[in-house]
Amino acid sequence: MDRFATRWLWVFIVTTLAGYARAGEPPDPALLTIERIFESRDFVGDSVSARWYKDGAGYLTLESSQAASGGRDIVLHDALSGELRVLVSAARLVPPGASAPLAIDDYAFSDDESLVLIYTNSKRVWRTNSRGDYWILDLASHELRKLGGEAAPATLMFAKISPTARHVAYVRENNLYVEDLVTRQITALTTCGNHHIINGTVDWVYEEELGLRDGFAWSPDATAIAYWQIDTTGVPEFTLVNNTDGLYPQLNQFAYPKVGQQNSACRVGIVAANGGPTRWLDVPGDPREHYIARLTWAPDSRHVLLQQLNRRQNINRVLLADAGSGQVTLGLTEQDDAWIDVNDEFHWLDEGRRFTWISDRDGWRHVYLATLPGGDVKLVTPGNYDVVQLLHVDEQDQALYFQASPDNPTQRYLYRIGMDGTKFERLTPTDQSGWHHYQISPNGRWAIHQRSAADSPPVTELVALPQHTTHRVLADNAELRKRFEALKIAPPEFFRVEIEPGVALDGWCLKPSDFEPAKKYPLLVYVYGEPAGQTVVDRWSGRNWLWHLMLTQRGYVVISFDNRGTPAPRGRDWRKAMFHKLGILGPADQAAALEKSLAARPYLDPQRVSIWGWSGGGSTSLHAIFKYPQLYQTAMAVASVPNRRYYDTIYEERYMGLPGDNPEGYRQGSAINFAHQLQGNLLLVHGTGDDNCHYQGAEALINELVRLNKPFAMMAYPNRSHSIGEGAGTTRHLRELLTRFLIENSPPGGK
Q1: Rounded to the nearest 5°, which phi and psi values hold at 706?
Q2: Which positions ≥6 away from 485 have C-beta within 8 Å?
Q3: Per-residue pLDDT reduced to its tens digit, 193-227
Q4: Contact 364, 314 (CB under 8 A)
Q5: What are the helix (H) ranges across 28-100?
Q6: 3-state class of 17 per DSSP?
Q7: Is 512 in contact with 552 (CB distance < 8 Å)?
Q8: Which of 160, 308, 407, 700 has the fewest other C-beta atoms within 10 Å?
Q9: How far apart, in whole angstroms, are the C-alpha atoms of residue 287 and residue 234?
Q10: Cα–Cα distance between 338 and 687 in angstroms, integer?
């Protein structure tokens, strides 16, 4: 590059990051900058955080209190009239001797509405703030007191009021306790909890890959508690090194079973609410070679239903356990040649004689009704479409409400069907395209409905069901919409690209607002590409979407594709095509879609093609630039997994099988094995405190690139987790890093 071109490029970089604003001048409302997107509140909209109360005649929100400075009231909104009533004033949440009310991180009412449980002073444990303090407020006497006796601050987890409102159960330091709210006596239901024995909660891998953390449940009659016990003895431990919080490094060690390594042992026990010995359920199979993925009490309080996955996760056995004897019988078996997803849309019917069951056994994800005993299943939602999520079961009207999108997998709508499989109808109005989210009331008469589209900020409203008539707008985001509409941007294009006969990928494309078809523009591909998520969705996607729009203002075209194996509602074969091909099929599909797009879109410059992604998208970006150097010149891989063998058992073995099942798949699916093919520009970004996709993997890849004498760039963010969001200035620094690397290696603008 000559001197003039170099000088021009750096002037462009400086003005790009500054947003073309002179010192002291406000930013141009038509232009996006990293500061506007990630540090200002210009594009932060209003959201509605609400939960339905009782039978659904009203919903609850937290509102700034007028009576107690700095506090929040729990407010009841009548669905029909809109009338507001303060159920719990912040003034009643001032602890004895304190001058300010408790900060509410979460709350729960007892079934009889006489008590409210306040969760406060919460601390982060891996993904969520699941450890803190709990206070109980008696709504009749106004007495407010802290639970846990002399327990140290912020050490209680998952406190739950019993169905009779007499007790509260909680976990502390891996043991399960019950506190009598009348006598204030605290009873330890378990005493064996330690570094390896975990009662009432779960280990790292159960939380990350099975979505569990809260590991106990009250029986409906409040006489007993069912709980998980995890034994991590013998599970290899991973060590995170914290170099930034003290004079000397701090070590954090935790059980983390990597592919093929020993798993924790898991069992479920039943213990009386007043204490005593635990009765362990007689679950068949080696507890280290199976997962107990879900448990729920039956309405009769005498039985517990379990979902047990084998290690390969291609068999899900529904087990009905007698809580008194511990004896277990098989309810039904779900089996697949690839893998089985855990059923989270479980609803009891007919006083516990039937329940809803989700299966894609006929090639599509559908709702079935299963009968106990025997496990006979009956299809309720027939047709060539996927039920994305079962939202509500209306037993009185014998109807199911669910999300689906039979015609466009980038969108989501509300549907209703009778339990006999008739009267299938779309409830979302046909003139409201895009993405729709619903919180349906317990009585099925109302829903808090949020709608958005890729180029339309969300609107939240209260709708009456099943008519879907708007009763009240709760948040219209008019100011956000006004600021968004002031931007100089072009509308997104949603499209399909056929990569082989009968296989078409969904995609979106963003172009500069001053786009000229005769010019050639640099292309940035945004990718995820693994079974945990879609990128091609017609919904408001916040800051990441705005950053991509910012790049179009600088002269880039941005495209994203959803390859086979991503969780789009396109049928079982689409979603499970990834089996034994993680890191293989996705990058191949992405490359094929890119080739077709370059051929069909002559305005794309094949000499300026970049790709970026995070987590699974970071891994896919590595595969892209290593395996397809003729297509991609630049890659930015954030928080990637270069070697599949370095990741955890549950995720990898679900999709790839055990190492002995698929050794060549593990080799082909690990990007590190193709580092020798690197020809382009590579940026590696990783948090050294990432407990999920370990920095160890990045270091292994760095070693390999050094051995091969391959030039690359890297940025390690000290002690940041997988989100790389901790610490002042981190997010802005990361986005400026990505922007700068892209501009330096794939100069913007049409030619």
Answers
A1: -65, -45
A2: none
A3: 999 999 999 999 999 999 999 999 999 999 999 99
A4: no
A5: 34-38
A6: helix
A7: yes
A8: 407
A9: 13
A10: 33
